[in-house]
Write a structure and sequence with these properties.
Blueprint lengths: L6 H12 L24 E3 L11 E3 L4 H11 L9 H7 L1 E4 L9 E3 L6 E7 L2 E2 L4 H8 L4 E6 L4 E6 H4 L3 E5 L3
Antiparallel strand pairs: 1-2, 3-9, 4-5, 4-9, 5-6, 5-7, 7-8
Helix pairs in contact: 1-2
């Protein structure tokens, strides 16, 4: 990570990267646990309304905003990033694409999905390896808990449709 990044931004991207490929997507999934949540990976009934998965039994994990909240809480920034995509929108300010920095948030235009900026212009979380730097330099990468991937994953902002970028008030 670039040395000019604050300790908080470094912690955010490190914690976000630590869950890549390890935690399933679960509609309404939240965790207030510091560190690894032992309930991840257990079978649970989806109780949150608004998803085709509601009422089904699935592997417990996080939803997109729950992932963001867990990451910020585990980065010693607390819950100041907000809960839910609308709460996270309210706890941040709009920035332009050119202002995007590691640790900022990326949203779909309708605020139905959120992720964390992992890097841009060759500056990435060390967990993402030099392969990504070499192949994606200059493209915005986002770590997010994706329902279609059923996991925490890394995607380009463009491939997901992230077009709104916001800076959390706590960074």
């Amino acid at each position: 990570l670039p040395s000019e990044l604050s300790a908080e931004r470094k912690a955010v991207v490190k914690n976000a990267g630590s869950l890549v490929g390890k935690v399933n997507y679960f509609w309404g999934g939240k965790s207030m646990v510091k560190g690894w949540d032992s309930s991840w990976g257990t079978m649970r009934t989806v109780t949150a309304e608004g998803s085709p998965t509601t009422g089904t039994i699935r592997t417990f994990g996080l939803d997109c905003s729950g992932f963001v909240t867990w990451v910020f809480n585990n980065s010693d920034v607390g819950y100041s990033v907000g809960h839910g995509t609308y709460g996270q929108r309210a706890a941040s300010r709009l920035i332009s694409r050119s202002e995007v920095h590691v640790g900022d948030l990326a949203f779909l235009a309708d605020y139905s999905h959120v992720g964390i900026i992992a890097g841009k212009s060759g500056r990435f979380c060390p967990i993402l390896t030099s392969y990504l730097i070499k192949n994606y330099s200059g493209i915005i990468l986002v770590i997010h808990c994706s329902s279609s991937a059923n996991n925490v994953t890394v995607s380009t902002a463009e491939s997901v449709g992230f077009t709104v970028f916001r800076r959390p008030n706590c960074l």
